[in-house]
Design a protein that fits this description.
7 strands, Aconitase, domain 4, alpha/beta, about 200 residues, about 35% helix, 8 helices
C-alpha cells in the first residue's frame, strides 16, 4: 500500500444515498484475479448507457472531476454485498479518500485494508461540501495526521479515526507488511520449532 497523509483535490460530489457495492462495481466485472484494472468499471451502469456511451450528466464523466482524488457521497456508502472489489475499483480509478456520513461496516474496514481513507463527517457537513462541489469545482485538503478536512473557503471539518488504522495508512502498511514487522521473531520461533 502507498502511504497516505495529505490529499489536495477537487472533490467529486456523488450526491446519492445507499450506494451499494453492486453499483460501485457490478457483478459481471468480478472475474479478474488481480486487484488492478477495476477502475474502468467503477459505477459502470451510471457512467455508461446500454451501448457503452458515456452518460454526459453523470458526475464522473464531467471533465472538471477527471483527476479528483476525493469522493464525497451521502449516508450508507458501500452497503450491500461484502465484495472487496468495491474499494479496489475506487482506488484503481484514482480516489484515495471517500467522505460520507456513514459507511457499511465491511466496506469501511475494506477501505482501510486497501489504502483508502474513509472519512465520516456529519450529514450536515457532507451536505455543505456536496452543495459547494455541485455548484462549481471545489478544492479541499484532507490531512490524516491532523484529522482535518480544510476547504478552499477556509471551512475546516474534523474527523475521528481509529489510531490503529491511522498508523497503517500513514505508513502504507497492509496486513502482510504488519506481519513482516515481526520477521525476526517469526524466524526465531520457526528455528526453535524445527529444533524440536
Amino acid at each position: 500500500m502507498e502511504p497516505i497523509n495529505i490529499v489536495n483535490s477537487v472533490i467529486t460530489p456523488l450526491d446519492r444515498k445507499n450506494v451499494d457495492t453492486d453499483q460501485i462495481i457490478s457483478k459481471e466485472f468480478l472475474k479478474r484475479i488481480e486487484r488492478t484494472g477495476f477502475g474502468q468499471y467503477l459505477f459502470y451502469h451510471w457512467r455508461f448507457d446500454a451501448e457503452g456511451n458515456e452518460i454526459k450528466d453523470f458526475v464522473l464523466n464531467k471533465l472538471e472531476f477527471k483527476d479528483s482524488k476525493i469522493l464525497v457521497a451521502q449516508d450508507n456508502f458501500g452497503c450491500g454485498s461484502s465484495r472487496e472489489h468495491a474499494p479496489w475499483a475506487i482506488l484503481d480509478y484514482g480516489f484515495n479518500v471517500v467522505i460520507a456520513p456513514s459507511f457499511a461496516d465491511i466496506f469501511h474496514n475494506n477501505c482501510f485494508k486497501n489504502g483508502i481513507l474513509p472519512i465520516k463527517l456529519t450529514e450536515a457537513e457532507c451536505d455543505e461540501i456536496l452543495a459547494k462541489g455541485l455548484e462549481k469545482p471545489y478544492m479541499v485538503e484532507v490531512n490524516l495526521e491532523a484529522q482535518t478536512v480544510t476547504c478552499e473557503d477556509g471551512v475546516v471539518y474534523h474527523f475521528s479515526i481509529d489510531p490503529y488504522y491511522k498508523e497503517t495508512l500513514l505508513n502504507g502498511w497492509d496486513e502482510i507488511a504488519l506481519t513482516f514487522k515481526y520477521e525476526e521473531q517469526i524466524a526465531a520461533y520457526e528455528a526453535q520449532r524445527i529444533a524440536y
